[in-house]
Amino acid sequence: MSRAPSADVAAELVAEHYRGEDYRDTRLDVLCEILNLSKGALNNRFDGKRPLLIMAALFAWRQWPGRSPGTCTSISRARTVMHDGIRSVAEFLNHERALMTQLVIGLGDLSNYEKRGGETGWNSENLGDPWAPVLREARLRARWTGFAGLLGSHTAAAGRAVGQLDAADHESTGAALSDLVLRTWWQNTQASPTTIADQLVGLWFDGCFAAKLGSWVGRADVAEIQARRSLRPEHAPTWRVASQAELGTALMSGQTLWRRAMKELDTALAEHRRMDPVLRGQLSPLLMASLYSRVGQSAFQFGDFVRAEASLEQALTAAEATGNDQDLARACTNLADLYLRTDRVAKAVELARQAVASRPLRPPFSSPVPRLWDNAVISSAVLVRCELEAGRVIDAVNRARDLVAVVTGHDGRTVAPSGPAAAAAWSCQGRALLAAGHSAAALESLDKAATVADTAAGVNSLPARQARVLRARCLLMRGDVGDARLLLEALAENEEWIAENMSFRHALAVRRWLGLTQLAGGYPDAGAETLTVGFAQLAEHHLPTSDRLVVDYRRALAQAAVAQGRPGTAVADLAQLVDEQLSAPPLPRRLRLLADLGEAYVADGDPDRALRVFRQALATTKTSGVDGSHPAILAIAVALAELSGADSDLEALRHLVRPALLRHGLRTLEEGHPLVRRADGLLAPAGKAGRGQKQLPQ
């Protein structure tokens, strides 16, 4: 007879006796026969019969028809789900009052001898699940975790409504609630299950739910209630618009539920369109400018750029009509971010500069409103990203440092150090340093960004996840492929939920970097499969071929083809990409694409074409405005020197190895950068000065 069924039968037998309020009448000879043990062995395993009591309680609970949590789509529904789960447990406790009373007494009477005795007294580990874990917790901590399975599943369902996705956290919360429900019931065994659930749901919401995700959850909870009330016929449509707008804004502040925020804000706009023109005129133009802006922001973050552009252009028009500088700066900031992601870099730079002019980091007159300082940080952060895309990495690094100086208070400013603006500033500096080729310095900023974002909106918020993707890229640059892969695999665990609720573009970007990391780690087939699956998922969104994410995936798949020994395929795909983007300015993205094509030609055994591609790429940069020390240019210069071996090409690499500092106070590239190692390898055998060798001529 196997042990697990034996444990079931034994627990059922004991449960029947406990329900009769006298477990001491349990027939030991019957138990010995069921468990195939002698009386001595039974006493050694179940000293004092207390483990049998715990098993009996667990057996009774497993027979109880627990409620399935279902799907949560709102914070209100999350409360209901938790209430249902706790009430179900309380109903069981009332139904099994005699048995569970004995359990509470037994847990409270555990001796230090039993707690210290390990398995010598109970010897229950070999009983397996579900008995062993519950017995272990009872013996070591005098804690009842029998309800943890049901309460953990309800906690997980509630958590997924707001992006709390940590399975281990749900399990630990379920275990803690299991014991808490039992002891709350024991304090007042005459209380109704609904009363117990009412009491504990509030404790769970404030102590577990909102505490881990930030104040935005409470704000969104209140906004949901207000939005439901606004639907009553006695309320004016104007209130419905304002209530829906507040709900969408509250959801946006969590920086997680971008799709739902877009939906709620769209509902507000639809309500506005249905209103009588007279009532519509009662709404503040400032409210409408803000509403258009927020619809566009939420659509942009989710990844619907077409929807975002339409709303953000309406927001700009509305802001211009109001004449409010702050509304105009917000509209310019958001549109600049969108234009940047859709490869309209020149227009993005122009709008970002206009926004920063209205929201300077160091205004001549200080505002007493902290939000205005936060807004100034956000506008400057967008300008930093614009400068990076334009190839002006030195200016970007310097501006990013200004952002951090404002956040840390070095200039006497007061930006909340644990707020979203602070996270954006630290992340911006990390991004700029990474783009400049200084991954070690970037890691420090990105770790700070992730910590602040975790505090501001939760570990699964979009800013926190983006900071960790950048961290993985830093690790990849430093050659820490294993650590980068582990980090990206963790981010990809909830890929489906992220794509559905937060941002499908972010989910696919994580997958792309995971595939590239697998390629870098020497696993070309695994990397190619990861990228192929991602590209298939991307096709479901029917994006244009010129979309940045589509282009990035095609580049990555070409790199996978080279890694798999199919350079001809890579050459064909990359050459097509280059032809499709003939009108693209020679900015870093274009240079990286040309570098990929040149490397593919080399792998395909055609060095002459590779040389032509490299030389043409470098020639286009002379009037592009891209910093001459930009890593994208240096990568092509190194590849060209490796291929040609000409003295003129080798001499052009000297700024990679000399100790001179650039305007941002850093070397061209950090010590140990992959390009520096390649340059050293070229210069040393040629009699040129590598690191630690004879200085190159200036």
TrEMBL record:
<dbReference type="InterPro" id="IPR019734">
    <property type="entry name" value="TPR_rpt"/>
</dbReference>
<protein>
    <submittedName>
        <fullName>Tetratricopeptide repeat protein</fullName>
    </submittedName>
</protein>
<feature type="repeat" description="TPR">
    <location>
        <begin position="591"/>
        <end position="624"/>
    </location>
</feature>
<dbReference type="Pfam" id="PF13432">
    <property type="entry name" value="TPR_16"/>
</dbReference>
<dbReference type="Pfam" id="PF13424">
    <property type="entry name" value="TPR_12"/>
</dbReference>
<keyword id="KW-0802">TPR repeat</keyword>
<dbReference type="InterPro" id="IPR011990">
    <property type="entry name" value="TPR-like_helical_dom_sf"/>
</dbReference>
